[in-house]
Amino acid sequence: MPPNHFRHVLSDPRRGRGIGLIEQFGLGPFKGVYSLVALVGFALIVWGFSRYRALKSRHDDRRATEVAIAIKSLNRMNELGRAKFVRRA
Questions:
Q1: Alpha helices in 1-89 (DSSP H)
Q2: Residue 42's closest CA among 20, 7, 24, 50?
Q3: Do residues 16 and 10 lie in contact, with contact meaning Cβ atoms separated by under 8 Å?
Q4: What are phi and psi of 51, to 5 degrees?
Q5: What is the C-alpha separation between 1 and 7, in angstroms, rounded?
């Protein structure tokens, strides 16, 4: 008898489809097709991530401008001198 938390998985009618396919085609071909589908899904994930990175890299010139402005303002603040802090007890 399976544990209580696992019973809903076995009673799910969608799970019977996979078992029927295994009985119909055999375990080896089922695993082969399953592996191919998994590889296609992984390839789509990699492709989508590479597209995201390509779109993100288009904004590098804007990022470089922002960094240049930040560096300029930090250098200007450094030229003006640092604030002197007084510790009070």
A1: 4-11, 13-25, 27-57, 60-80
A2: 50
A3: no
A4: -65, -40
A5: 9
pLDDT truncated to tens, each residue of the chain (89 aa)?
445 554 554 455 556 666 777 788 888 888 898 899 999 999 999 999 888 877 766 666 667 788 888 888 888 888 887 766 677 76
pTM over 0.85? The answer is no
CA distance linking residue 21 with residue 46, whole number of Å: 29
Contacts of 9 (CB under 8 A, 6+ apart): 15
Tokens encoding 77:
């603040």
Using CA atoms, how far apart are residues 70 and 76, in angstroms rounded to an integer?
10
Residue 86: how many CB atoms within 10 A of its CB? 4
